[in-house]
Design brief:
The complex is a heterodimer.
Chain A lengths: L1 H20 L13 H34 L15 H29 L7 E8 L2 E6 L4 E5 L5 H4 L17 E4 L4 E7 L4 E5 L4 E5 L5 E5 L5 E7 L11 E7 L1 H21 L6 H15 L1 H4 L17 H4 L2 H10 L15 H13 L11 H10 L1
Parallel strand pairs in A: 1-5, 4-10
Antiparallel strand pairs in A: 1-2, 2-3, 5-8, 6-7, 6-9, 9-10
Helix pairs in contact in A: 2-3, 6-10, 10-11
Chain B lengths: L19 H6 L3 H29 L10 H36 L7 H20 L27 H28 L12 H32 L13 H18 L2 H15 L6 H14 L15 H29 L8 H24 L1 H7 L3 H31 L5 H28 L13 H30 L36
Classes of the chains: A alpha+beta, B mainly alpha.
The structure holds protoporphyrin IX containing FE and copper (II) ion (CU).
């Protein structure tokens, strides 16, 4: 018995020591920055303490028996094997505890489901593997891609502070306002989660889910996709910037202006070099995760573009597959995901990069016309 | 209980056939039981080695060992192999060996079907494992294979996966029919339902669960097959279908399935705790009712796996209440086991060590289950490592420790030798420490915000992941020791008497050890 006790102590110490030495090891949920997340936190702590209390009693009796009623200490077994009163009691008492627990849980849930009277509406669409944020009332939208360099993931470069939890364009919301999110997906099911808000909701293709938040503390909040959505599921973070209202309004105005400029860019006359430069960037964010940065793909799921028959010869087919996707495969329709400029640039890039030197280019206007004919 | 054990007079008439045909053609419940157990252990090692790949990749942040595509194949295959290849066949193996011995029957009711249900399994897993070598790789959509990731976006090998699941399902259903037929028709005279050993009771109820839900699983994979190859759109919104429908059908199978993996262990643990406490089981009747209640309620809680899909509030509340309720009968069982130990005369041989660990750690898994049942809190826990911690706490110290406890408890009966107690205790302590090191930190990771099924993670999760990987390697390596202990015990060791455990009860201890090839040709009498 001594030996066992010593082992148990050693185990407990082994588990707890590193925790006390390095106090920044997060072990618990954080209360977060919204009333929802705070309520969830208090439910979490309540049920946790209830479990601890039940555990202390049950394991207490058990450890006492292990200690005192051992055959090696000469314990003689009793012979009782039922007791109706006790059995009824330990059915009723847990039931009562659970009813007590269900009440605040229900109240919180009812509040979480109240999506009425929102101040800002944002549509969130999950794509393999990025998020699109659409400001419904203000008529602009953008994509949010993970911005951690592949070199950091491949351990060729030191990892940054926000490794895997950083994006090119964060979602921006005003503090103190009720923001309603409408969630859907373009391909498979994704799930949008920001722990600090207590908001997690599935984004399901073909359906629209609703949820909401009201953030009171300005700051940058990070989360991730939490529904397995394919190979880069681990690489589609959510970053939200909550800013004071004036700053938010300024930002919205800026975004609207940029959206307008983007529309004008479609009209401009582009040179091959300009398109190549822009195309390289668009390719890196939209295409490289499957077709790879060097265009060699990951056959058979993701075919190579370098030297591919389509990229070298079939211009019509090339535009079609990028704009409309290839149904039933992982190749999505990028027609609505990228601007005309980016579509033109990326197709031009694919036809001229990695030794695919066709010298051919597609202009944004041609893409615009192509889309309109459909 | 008294029994007439005149079996030794017949076993000379027909012993086992010689050579490979003994195993291919056998209809003997003991041979088939052994084959199930050996197959299950092989799958346990295979699924376990995939877990080692997963934990090796997660040892540090960054991608080191495998690509994300392969990582997803590993998590998927690990889950499928452990659930369908390791845990379920192990319980069927125990059922084959022990049910006839416990109810005093000469064999299972349908011996030829028994042979067929076993031999389907290696075929199914040959198909499943071969997908690893196919173009496009093995299934990579998680053991829960949510559509449309598994349909429109699945690899070509998905069709083989579907076929394998169908074969496993046929095998399970036939096994379950056999169990029910044996228990209901072949009990020794005098063994009324409420005198049946608990392992028999829990298996009877498990078998009904299997018959109820395996067809649902077959249905859902068939719908996938139709979507993939025959142009239907059950789960495709663009054709008028619904991806969430998939989850409802899957979890209608899936939740009862998790109880299929634990109820037989409940039964076995009840015998072992009582035997090593040298005291009758406390609350036999309430144990039976609790298992029955759990089984019925397990059909009404499935959507607790889907709290974030956007169910209406009423549905959310219903499934929250129902799930909280299911914790009550589960609690009753734990209280009964503890009260059985209370004022007993306890000793701690390997079966008891595994059983005590089962009670403690399974209860911890039950606690996290209760936390997950609180729907608003589940919004934070769902699809994080907290859920991974929960189900590994109920499945590893639950199902797996239950199987180890049973194996050590009955090995003397199977082999006629005592196993090496020192080695078995070493096996226990290394497994116990390894398992807790591997899975306890996962609670912290989940609460701190680490999603599940990711091949790489943010830097704040590094330390606990490292601990977890070390624990997992330790747990994994320890299982080779179990193999050694069993082989050693089969080959030789101290001769086991008919009843090696002084506190044990039941008909299985009235036949000699090792149990002769044919037992209870004349039914024993149960008073
Ligand atoms: C007190 C009893 C239990 C309760 C209240 C409970 C509750 C839950 C809940 C609410 C979830 C969903 C969590 C989420 O995905 O967000 C869950 C997941 C799970 N539970 Fe339990 N559980 C209990 C016992 C068990 C037992 C006995 C087993 C198996 C032996 C089990 C196996 C699982 C598995 C495998 C999953 C995760 C499936 C997956 O998503 O891959 N649970 N449990
Ligand atoms: Cu469940």
């Amino acid at each position: 018995m001594r030996v066992h006790a010593k082992r148990a102590v050693a185990l407990a110490a082994g588990l707890l020591l590193p925790v006390t030495v390095m106090a920044d090891w997060t072990m618990n949920m954080s209360p977060g920055v919204t009333s929802t997340s705070n309520q969830i936190f208090s439910l979490h702590m309540t049920i946790l303490w209830i479990c601890v209390a039940i555990g202390v009693i049950v394991f207490g009796v058990m450890f006492w028996s292990i200690f005192a009623h051992r055959k090696s200490r000469g314990a003689k077994p009793a012979n009782f094997h039922e007791n109706t009163v006790v059995e009824v009691l330990w059915t009723i008492i847990p039931l009562a505890i659970l009813v007590a627990m269900a009440i605040p849980a229900t109240a919180t849930l009812v509040e979480m489901y109240d999506t009425t009277e929102s101040d800002v509406d944002i549509k969130i669409t999950g794509y393999q593997w990025r998020w699109q944020y659409e400001y419904i009332d203000d008529d602009f939208s953008f994509f949010s891609n993970m911005s951690t360099p592949r070199d950091q993931i491949r351990n060729r470069q030191a990892k940054g502070e926000h490794y895997l939890l950083e994006v090119d364009n964060p979602l921006v919301i005003p503090v103190g306002k009720k923001v309603r999110f409408l969630l859907t997906a373009n391909d498979v099911i994704h799930s949008w989660w920001v722990p600090a808000f207590g908001v997690k909701k599935d984004a399901i293709p073909g359906f629209i889910n609703e949820t909401w938040t009201r953030v009171d503390v300005p700051g940058t909040y990070r989360g991730q996709c939490t529904e397995l959505c394919g190979k880069d599921h681990g690489f589609m973070p959510v970053v939200v910037k909550a800013v004071p209202e004036e700053e938010y309004n300024e930002w919205v105005a800026e975004q609207r202006e940029m959206a307008e400029m983007e529309r004008q860019l479609t009209e401009k006359d582009w040179t091959l070099d300009e398109l190549m430069e822009r195309g390289e960037r668009a390719y890196a964010t939209a295409c490289a995760s499957c077709h790879q940065a060097d265009g060699t793909g990951l056959p058979p799921a993701f075919p190579a573009l370098k030297g591919s028959q389509m990229a070298l010869e079939d211009m019509e087919g090339h535009i079609d597959i990028v704009v409309n996707g290839a149904p039933g495969t992982a190749m999505q329709a990028f027609g609505n995901q990228l601007s005309e400029v980016d579509l033109a640039a990326v197709i031009t890039y694919e036809r001229n990069a990695w030794g695919n030197n066709t010298g051919e280019m597609v202009t944004p206007k041609e893409i615009f016309d192509y889309k309109n004919q459909q | 209980m008294s029994a007439v054990a005149d079996t030794h007079t017949q076993d000379h008439h027909h012993g086992p056939a010689k050579g490979i045909s003994r195993w291919l053609l056998t209809t003997n419940h003991k041979d088939i039981g052994s084959m199930y157990l050996i197959f299950s252990f092989a799958m346990f090692l295979l699924g376990g080695s995939m877990a080692m790949v997963i934990r090796a990749e997660l040892f540090q942040p960054g991608l080191q060992i495998v690509e994300p595509e392969f990582f997803n194949q590993m998590t998927t295959m690990h889950g499928l192999i452990m659930v369908f290849g390791a845990v379920m066949p192990a319980f069927v193996g125990l059922a084959n060996w022990m049910l006839p011995l416990m109810v005093g029957a000469p064999d299972m009711a349908l011996p030829r079907m028994n042979n067929w249900s076993f031999w389907l399994l290696p075929c199914a897993f040959l198909i499943l494992v071969s997908t690893l070598f196919m173009q496009g790789g093995a299934p990579d959509f998680g053991w829960t294979f949510y559509a449309p990731l598994s349909t429109t976006y699945g690899p070509p090998s998905t069709t083989f996966f579907i076929f394998a699941v169908h074969i496993m399902g046929v095998s399970s259903i036939m096994g379950a029919i056999n169990v029910i037929a044996t228990i209901l028709n072949m009990r020794a005279p005098g063994m009324t339902l409420m005198k049946m050993p608990l392992f028999v009771w829990t298996w009877l109820i498990t078998a009904f669960l299997l018959i109820a839900v395996m067809p649902v699983l077959a249905g859902v994979v068939t719908m996938m097959l139709m979507d993939i190859h025959f142009g239907t759109s059950f789960f495709d919104a663009s054709g008028g279908g619904d991806p969430v429908l998939f989850q409802h059908v899957f979890w209608f199978f899936g939740h009862p399935e998790v109880y299929i993996m634990i109820l037989p262990a409940f039964g076995a643990i009840s015998h072992i705790v009582s035997a090593f406490s040298r005291k009758p089981l406390f609350g036999y009747a309430s144990m039976v009712y609790a298992v029955g209640a759990i089984a019925i309620m397990s059909f009404m809680v499935w959507a607790h796996h889907m709290f974030t899909v956007g169910m209406p509030l009423a549905g959310q509340l219903f499934f929250m209440y129902a799930t909280m309720l299911i914790a009550v009968p589960t609690g009753v069982k734990v209280f009964n086991w503890v009260t059985t130990m209370f004022r007993g005369s306890l000793s701690f041989e390997a079966p008891m060590l595994f059983s005590v660990a089962f009670i403690i750690l399974f209860t911890i898994g039950g606690f996290s289950g209760l936390m997950l049942a609180i729907a608003p809190a589940d919004f934070q826990y769902h699809d994080t490592y907290f859920v991974v911690a929960h189900f590994h706490y109920v499945l590893v110290p639950g199902a797996i420790f239950g199987i180890f406890a049973s194996a050590y408890f009955w090995l003397p009966k199977w082999t006629g030798h005592m196993y090496d107690e020192t080695l078995a205790k070493t096996h226990f302590w290394l497994s116990f420490i390894g398992m807790n090191l591997a899975f306890f930190p996962m609670h912290f990771l989940g609460l701190a915000g680490m999603p599940r099924r990711i091949p790489d993670y943010a830097l704040q999760f590094t330390d606990f992941n490292m601990i977890s990987s070390i624990g997992a390697f330790m747990f994994g390596a320890t299982q080779l020791l179990f193999l050694f202990i069993v082989v050693k015990c089969v080959k030789g060791g101290k001769k086991a008497p008919a009843k090696p455990w002084d506190g044990a009860e039941g008909l299985e201890w009235t036949v000699p050890s090792p149990a002769p090839y044919h037992t209870f040709s004349t039914p024993p009498e149960v008073k």
